[in-house]
Amino acid sequence: MKYKYSLLLICFIATSIISNAQKTKNKKVELGKLSGSVESNMQYYNEKDDEIGFVAPDERFRSNNYLKIDYTNKGFSAGFQFEAYQPDVILGFPKNLKGNGITNYYASYSSKKFSATIGHYYEQFGSGLLLRSWEDRQLGINNAMFGGRIQYAPTDALTIKAVYGKKRDAYTTGEGVVWGTDVDVNLSNLIKLNEEKSGTIYTGLSYVGKQESYTGVIANFPNVVHLFSIRSSFEKDNFSLNAEYAFRTKDGSINDLGKVINTDRFFTGNVLQLGATISGKTDSWNITLRKVNNFAMYTDRTETSNQLILNYVPALTKQHHFALSNIYVYNARTRFSFSPGNILNSTGEIGGQLEWVKTFQKNSSLGGKTGLQLNVNFAYYAALAFDGTDINTTKIYNFKAGNTNFRDFNIEVKKTWNSKLKTNFSYLNILYNQNIVEGHGNDNVQANILIGETIWKLNKTNSIRADVQHMWVDNDNRGNWAAATIEYTIAPMFNFFVADMYNYGNTLNKVHYYNVGASVTKGSASIIISYGRQREGLLCVGGVCRLVPASTGFSISYSYSF
Amino acid sequence: MLHLLNKKILIFFAIIVSTSCFGQENIADVKLKNTKGKLIDFSEVIQSDKPVIISFWATWCSPCLRELDAISEVYDTWQKETGVTLYSVCVDDARSKAKAVSLAKGKGWSYEILYDPNQDLKRALNVINIPYTFVFLNGKIIYKHTGYSPGSEDILYEKIKASLQ
């Protein structure tokens, strides 16, 4: 460990010398550029909090820290990321991150047409259905590929990529080996169509292979799984259309505890997705339809956490940003799921989403003197139907809808009254199949949510933001909720806030989730200090949003980039 | 534990010392798609001799939407007075990317949208949390700020005007 710290210090000294040298030397001597960022999230937990059944872990102070340094010199770049989870990870983060070390490092070269990277890299083919490696620190996700990548773009109309590697898992990598290639083509440009007249057509093809040895007793168990996809989009004026189909070859089935199910019946998987957008001058429609059958995968087949995810099949629903609208959040059903005893309970989902955004302009009947913004969104997802819960005999349907998993109708009205006052009104109606999404509870939780928000600008720099929220709930023991927030901001540096969520409808335990804090921001640096009880959800403070896991205590977050 | 903290503090200061020595630009070699699917070279976007605002946002980030709404109301005036151009870099991933363009059009924003669905540009510019706004002039960063609070847009505009004097 000492060695690593010394290494870091040497890096810093080196960076200072290089950058100082740059200032003093002749400008023609290009010594390259250094940049980077620091982020530190610290938590000090209360000893216990009986009301929410919270007992502090052995280490009450915990912190997650990230340091990223990149060096670039013309086409060449190299860098590393150092992570420290000391004395232990913040609750809710993967336990195997405990400790510290250089977790990512890379070197890469790029010219106008060609680029190559060795080490850790982030990659996404198309929308990520076959392959995505990414970082999301709030979620504790960093599944960077470790290996090599090349990209070649002979013309503006054609990009070819090839990748090889294993995915990062904390301080090491997973077992599964991944390789793949992606081709992205602007067809209209390639065959010299007049894009103004005939529109633009894009198409893409991807292939990904995954290999992981299997040493169990099942005969003919697939060591290698192949994934294929084809995507296409058409865009002209204010209209666009896109379609994507993905397929994968047979693989063994894994139960929700990460155990291989002992059967010689193997299943393929597929995804079909269609989308369209039509826009007018002041309004716009967007529709997405998607069907997923057994498609989400890990590079290591027995993984069940957020680590070693191979591909990205997100829930296609609206991401809400108020406290109460983030309690019943849909989690897409994208792979086979089994109840205890290996009873099949989900094979996939089918559904879609429709969104309408409209601005009623100034001096129109609804817009009034200052205009009005309307956003209407509807999403519906059902389980894919299947007959029988025994994996050896079940019949799987590819397009037939079964029980409802989730439904969300929401409407948001934003009104600017004058230069000082803005209001925002939201209504949400949610049907949530708790049993399917969380694995327990009621399959017909109904929630109605009303939210009012106002932003009042007192003068050039001082403003107050306040919201009140209420949620009526049926078929969940926790019952109704109420919430409110008040934020006082002195732009651009200071922000103070008090928030509370009160689960007053809970017959067993009425709990206040209170939170009080402040933030200071200057340039690219920001520090947030808060105290309170937090339930998992998106928390937006001083204009910065993060996903916070449940806890009681103090938290301090610091970030800076250069 | 204390020993460890001391080391951390030492490292922290090392960071501050070394960073204070180099505040130069980091011109990222990243290509992003616009809403028409065309690849845009980021290093070319920021080479303009007029100010260029790069604003990172996502459909789920309400302060981001408030900032871009607020700028949208005065954008015409800003453009006339300073020739500034704003590129809104959308970091929505596959989950909400398709809705970003309809949201922007429905809101009547006239900014060009660049998609950064796997956060390549966000990472290259070392953006940690959004909203995050940069102002570039002749390829150099002249202002950057994380977060948004009502009134921040006026400060942003003052910086832009000051840079042209």
Write structural notes for this entry.
- The complex is a heterodimer of chains A (562) and B (165).
- Chain A is mainly β.
- Chain A has a single domain, classed as Beta Barrel (Maltoporin, Chain A).
- Chain A is 6% helix and 57% strand.
- In chain A, strand 28 and strand 29 form a beta hairpin.
- The radius of gyration of chain A is 26 Å and the shape is globular.
- Chain B has one domain: Glutaredoxin, CATH 3.40.30.10.
- Chain B has six helices and seven strands.
List its salient traits.
heterodimer; A: 562 residues; mainly beta; Maltoporin, Chain A; 24-stranded antiparallel barrel; two-stranded antiparallel sheet; 4 helices; 35 strands; 6% helix; globular; disordered N terminus; B: 165 residues; alpha/beta; Glutaredoxin; seven-stranded mixed sheet; 7 strands
| Measured distance between first and last alpha carbons of chain B | 52 Å
Major sheet of chain B: order of its strands? 2-1-5-4-3-6-7
Distance between the termini of chain A: 26 Å
Range of strand content of chain A: over 45%
Uncertain stretches of 5 or more adjacent residues of chain A:
1-28, 538-546
Give the % helix of chain B: 40-55%
The overall average pLDDT of chain B, rounded, is 84
Number of helices of chain A: 4
Structural class of chain A: mainly beta
What is the name of the CATH architecture of chain B? 3-Layer(aba) Sandwich
Question: What is the total domain count of chain A?
Answer: 1
Q: CATH topology of chain B, anyone?
A: Glutaredoxin
Shape of chain B: globular
For the record, what is the CATH homologous superfamily label of chain B? Glutaredoxin
Tally of alpha and pi helices of chain B:
6
| CATH architecture descriptor of chain A | Beta Barrel
Shape assignment of chain A: globular
SSE blueprint:
The complex is a heterodimer of chains A (562) and B (165).
Chain A: H1 2-24, E1 33-45, E2 48-49, E3 54-55, E4 61-73, E5 76-85, E6 99-110, E7 114-121, E8 123-124, E9 132-133, E10 135-136, E11 141-142, E12 145-155, E13 158-169, E14 172-173, E15 177-186, H2 187-190, H3 195-198, E16 200-211, E17 224-236, E18 239-251, E19 267-279, E20 283-293, E21 337-339, E22 343-346, E23 348-360, E24 372-387, E25 395-416, E26 421-432, H4 434-438, E27 445-457, E28 462-474, E29 481-490, E30 494-502, E31 512-522, E32 525-534, E33 537-541, E34 544-548, E35 551-561
Antiparallel strand pairs in A: 1-4, 1-35, 2-3, 4-5, 5-6, 6-7, 7-12, 8-9, 10-11, 12-13, 13-14, 13-15, 15-16, 16-17, 17-18, 18-19, 19-20, 20-23, 21-22, 23-24, 24-25, 25-26, 26-27, 27-28, 28-29, 29-30, 30-31, 31-32, 32-35, 33-34
Chain B: H1 2-20, E1 31-34, E2 39-41, H2 42-45, E3 52-57, H3 62-82, E4 85-90, H4 97-107, E5 112-115, H5 120-124, E6 132-137, E7 140-146, H6 152-163
Parallel strand pairs in B: 3-4, 4-5
Antiparallel strand pairs in B: 1-2, 1-5, 3-6, 6-7
